[in-house]
Structures are given as C-alpha cells and as structure tokens.
Amino acid sequence: MADKAFLTGINDYKNIGDLRGCINDTASIRKLLLDQFGFKDANIRIRTDDEVTKAELNKGWKWLLKNAKPDDRLVFHFSGHGSYTADTDDEEPDFQDELLCLYGMDWHDPKTYLLDDELRVWTEQIPEGVQVTFVLDCCHSGTGTRMVEPKLSRAVRTDFRSAAPLAIEDVAIERALKSGATRSTRGLDDHVRKQVRPVHQEDIGLATVLARFARPPANFQIAIDNAKHKRSFRSVLKQAATRSAADQEMNHVLWSGCRDNQTSADAHIAGDYHGAFTYYFCNAVRELGRGARASDVITSLRTKLSEQHFQQLPQLEPEGYSGIVFGSAEQNTDVSLEEPPSDVGDDGGGGGGGINVSAADWQQMLAILQQIAANLSGEKGAAQQRAGSRGIVFVHGICAHDAGYSDPWWESLRPHLSSGVRDALAANRKEVLWSRHVTDMDRAAASAADPVEIQQLEWQLRAVLSERMTQEASQQIVERAAGETRAADIPPGTVRAAGESRPVPRAVLGIPGVDCVDDFVKYLSIDSVRQAVLGECTSVLRPLLQQGQSIELVSHSWGTVVAFEALRELDREGLSGRVHNWFTLGAALAISFVADRLRPRDGRKPTLVDRWINLDARGDGVGGSLQATNLQVDEEYLRLAPVGCRSFLGLVSPACAHSSYFQASNTAVNRDILARQIERA
After folding, report:
1. Residue range 4-146+212-328, CATH number
2. Which residue spans adopt a coiled-coil conformation according to this UniProt entry (predicted)?
C-alpha cells in the first residue's frame, strides 16, 4: 500500500488579501496523517505561498496518482482563498464557476486559479478502487463580511474590491466576548473594537477573523448578474434536465469548510493562526481515533465550530457517507468481533457461549439503549401533558397582519378535528402578531442600523428569492415534461386567497415576500428589532408552557424563522409544557441564506418540541426541504399539490402556492397532515 498526500497552503498572496493560518493548516494535516494514519513522511509533499501554482498542482496530482493501486489512500488538501468567475460553458445553474485562488490569483489569467471543472477532470482520472480524499479549507461566498482597506500596491494590480481582505465581524465579536472582552455602550471595548471590525490593514490583529474568500472584480460580477437576468426558460430547462444525470456516484470523498453561501474562517485559535475548519477537523479525528467514521467526524466538527461561535457549516460529500476517514467505505461495513471486556459477553458457564463484541461496540449499544429510554420517557411525559389542557398558536409571515389573520387558517383545519380536540383548541386559540415591530420601527432602532449594510442585505435577499423562483419554475417544467405533474385541485368558480374578506397581503400579489422583504431585513440586521419580535412570540408561548399545556404551533413563511428562534430561547427556561406538533408551512427556513443567519445556527430541533413537521407546496419558491439546510426536522411533506392555484403551461403562481396551505378545500394539508398529527397521541 502506498498512501500519499499533497498539501498546499497560501498565506502570502501576490495580488489579493493575505491570510494567516493556511501554512499552519498544512502542518496540522501532515501531523494528523503521520500520527494517526501511518503515512510516511517521504510520501507527503507540501507546497506553500509562491510554490502553489497551477503547474505545481497538476504535477502534484500526477504524483499522487502515479502507481496508485486499489485500497491506496490519497489526500489532496488546499487552504487559501476561494472565489468564482463567470461560467463560460453554460453548465452551471448559477452562471458561475467556483475556483481555488492560487498564489498569483488574477481573474484574467486562468493559469492563476483552479476551476471546479478542472477538479472534476482530476476525479475522472482516479483509478478504480483508489481512495481519494479532498480537503478544501476555503469558501466561495463573502456573505456576512466587511471589506478591509487593501494594500495600495495590490489594489492597483487588480482592483480595490478584489484586493481587500474580508473580515467576519459577527464571529469575531462573539469570540472576543467569550475570551473576556466586555461590552460598552458603543459595543465592544476600544482595544478590541478595531480588531473585530478592522478598517485598515494595521487594524487586523489577534481578534480579527478573516474570510477565506476573494471577491471577483466588479466587471466579472456584472457579467454573472447579466447572464442571470437574460436566463431563458429553455436554458433553465436544459440545466435542470441535465443536473440529475451529472449527479453520478462519487469516486472520492470531499470535505469542505462551509456551505456554498458561507465563509470559512481564518482565526487565532489555541495560540496560533489556523483555518477554523482544518483545526477542528484534525481535533475531531484525533478524539475519535484512527478508525473514526466520517459521519461521526462531521457531527463532532460542526458541534465544535458552533461551540466556538463559528457560523460556518462544514460539508461532507457524498452526503451521508459513513466510511472511515481517509479510508474505504468497505472498511466501515466490516463489524470487528473482538474479545469483550471481562464482564461482558460471557454466558456464565465460561465456555464462550456469549456473544463477543468489542468494548467500543458495547458502548455504542449502551448509548443507543439510553437514547431509546430517553425517547420513551419523553413520549410518556408528552402524553401526560396532552391529557391536560391544550392550545393552538399561529405565527404569521412578513407583511403587515391584523388581529384575526388566523381565522381562515383555523376554519380550514377545524372541521377535520374530533369534537373533543376541536373544542379544547378553540377555547385556547392564540395568534402571534409580530409584524408591527418591523413596519413601525422606532427612530432609535433606525438610527442604530447601518443603512449600507441593510441595503446590501436587502439586495442579496431579493436576488436569492428571485433565483429560487426561477429554480422552482425550472423544476415544474421538468416535471411536466416527464409527465409527473398532476393537475392542481381547482375548485369551481373564481379562485380566491384565504381570508378574502380582508385585504390581500402584498406578498400574495407577487413573488412571496419580495414586496415586504425590507421588513425581514430589519429583523436580520437590527438586534433591537429582532428582540422585540421574539419578545412578542415568547410572550404568547411562555404563559401556556408555564401552565404545562400541550401546544400545537402553526407557523407560516418567514414566521417559521421567528418561531424557531423563539423556541430556542424558551428552551433555556425549563418550562413544563410541550409543543406537541410544530408545523412549518412554506418555511423561509428552507432558504440557506436565511437559515445561515439563525441564532443559534446549529440546526438542532428545539427541545420543547415533540414533533417538527415541515410542509412544502409545488410552486412555492419560499418553502422547501429543511433537511437540505441541515435542520433537524422530524417529518417532511414536500411538493404537495398547490390547491386552489391555476397553472399555465405547467407553471403555478409562486404567491398562490405559498398561500395554498390554508385553502378550505386543501384536505391533503388540513385533514391528512395537520389534523391527523394533532390527533396522534
């Protein structure tokens, strides 16, 4: 067996912003491979800074593959900046190619970067049976970052935007507070503030957290945006139709530092600079041991990063891969029957009649049994709670809502409940009214906001929503072409929005949420507004839970975000009641851009909730799978028929689909899902 590794890291870039922990990352991976996995030092090659060129990477890849045989382990690691450029072959649905920024990064010179298409060509060269692992600690998005004034010499060679380092302010603040910094009336103390929110190069210090992302020059971004605006349904259909064919079984394993729309952090950790992903990846593998399973490592890694206030969510592909780290998936399926501990597996006769399993396996079995016991205990307690008083609470989405907005929601559900349950819920029906806190924002809150930041966030959110609508339309076209789309359940007569006696919300008239997106931008970007909204929600839920009641919680659209954060706040209060079912309908939680800004961002189901059930209608570009955004939902009902919505050439209005859950004629939702779950013990 010839195990080899090619490790690269760039701190000192020629044209774009420098980083600090990338070379240390290569040392960390090298030490891990030597100490934990038995790699030989002679079979590990490291290239740093100006050595990391395209020619050198291609040479290193050929060296890795040379004489490779089945079961050999090969590792390619890159720590540095990531970015993107305009897609030239019309293969990418987002019209941009992701890339690794090499030492001389210049968007006008393909020799200075490595495209994702080129990495794909590499993978096609992997001999069958050879185990290849890619570890990439970089990112392809500058979400949530702030530009630092670049070095003039580099700004001249590229442009100001591309040469500027990017600081991740939110993460730096949380880490600074944890390390002992104190708040003042203006935020952080002066000696820390400059470092967590650097303006000039000299401000960058120990507390600064940098993003491993380089913004493309403005003209490249404009080209990408123009391509998106000129997108035709024909091109979208072509991309959607070929996407499934491209998702073939992977012949390698890919570890990456974050989601596509997140940033990988470069920070001061444990006395030196590191990539947060690489540092905690190595730690997680060491703690779990040489036979660590990838599925266990990714779980531990995400937990460690969250505990240290890093918001990035590392990714593992193929999704669900559970093989041994740097090893083969087949190794993972072989159950090792070792000698048991002296007090385990003996039938008492000393004749070996017991089942021999390893101590580690017994520990795992014990953990499973304990989890089962905890679940049984929780279900029993929940059943006892439901035997007492019950209630139902509704949480609306964005745009202004008035008292009574939930009346049509309740009227659609009520006929499908048994009389006892119906009467109990009707007598204790509540609704959360939070929209006034964003529509009537006071002057103090407005003055505390950064108008530039709010404008940028609003633009990004509008672009995300527009893109989701286009993707949803393309999926409907593909379904129709494949004969998979069923005719929508359209009642006779004029189609009306739920609650027609009231003014139809602005969101129903166009792309859901676009006309009111500024409302939710305030929620995401202004802490005082966020706390006021959450306070409104918790003030309704808390008294019911304090009384030990069993609650059915129904949240819609952007209200699902409010409900999630409110429930996580209430988790800390030790309340005796339970949320029997939490329904999320057309959930904005399905939008990665939104889910990545949740507080906290660990994806964990609120402990107060017994069952978390997510519903999504076909054509609803806001809703979608919550598992896709790494949220611990229990059940999902996806691509339900948008009842009450007409279609044109197979396309359903997003606004209609988004409000279809509450149509009285939508028995699939109100009777078969909501009522059935509410009636469950």
Report:
1. 3.40.50.1460
2. none
